[in-house]
Design a protein that fits this description.
By secondary structure, the chain is mainly beta. It has a single domain, classed as Jelly Rolls. 12% of the residues lie in helices and 30% in strands.
């Protein structure tokens, strides 16, 4: 058998090297208030930030307001993005077409993959970024109102690895 066999690939290198396990888990309870509320009524909850996961991933619950909102098609150079629909319907752009995704549907977008999303009516989804970049400032700044000066806006988007197409 040749190595590496994609069905039997090795685990990543050990991060924890102690002889015993450690008490290091943490719990974020359901019902905690959202971390960001947008003027549209949509919210973002920080379930696991890159800081909390040592940069491995970021996990966020996104809930749309009543009116349809979402970003235009864009891509990220350094992070992948995943979408998992929890409730309602969300329109996801996969770089070719807008697809209607329902509960349980999942979309993976690798680094450089063009994507976008739209939702309304309280639909919700999980967003996962890997590795876990500092997305919180991006979400919070958009809630307050992103820079409107074209140069400042371009610098803000580049700082947050977001490139419009």
């Amino acid at each position: 058998m040749s190595w590496p066999d994609p069905l039997h690939r090795p685990y990543p290198r050990a991060v924890h090297t102690g002889a015993d396990g450690e008490v290091s888990a943490w719990l974020r309870r359901d019902g905690a208030p959202p971390d960001v509320t947008y003027p549209s009524g949509g919210t973002c909850e920080y379930l696991a930030t890159g800081d909390r996961t040592r940069g491995r991933f970021g996990l966020y619950r996104w809930t749309f307001g009543e009116a349809e909102t979402g970003p235009e098609p864009h891509f990220h150079r350094s992070i992948s993005e995943q979408f998992y629909v929890l409730s309602g319907e969300v329109r996801l752009f996969d770089g070719r077409d807008w697809l209607t995704a329902g509960v349980g549907d999942f979309l993976y977008v690798p680094e450089g993959g063009v994507h976008a999303f739209r939702g309304s009516g309280g639909a919700s989804m999980l967003l996962v970024f890997a590795p876990g970049g500092p997305r919180e400032d991006y979400f919070e700044t958009l809630a307050r109102g992103a820079p409107t000066d074209p140069v400042e806006r371009a610098l803000f988007m580049a700082r947050h690895d977001t490139y419009w197409v």
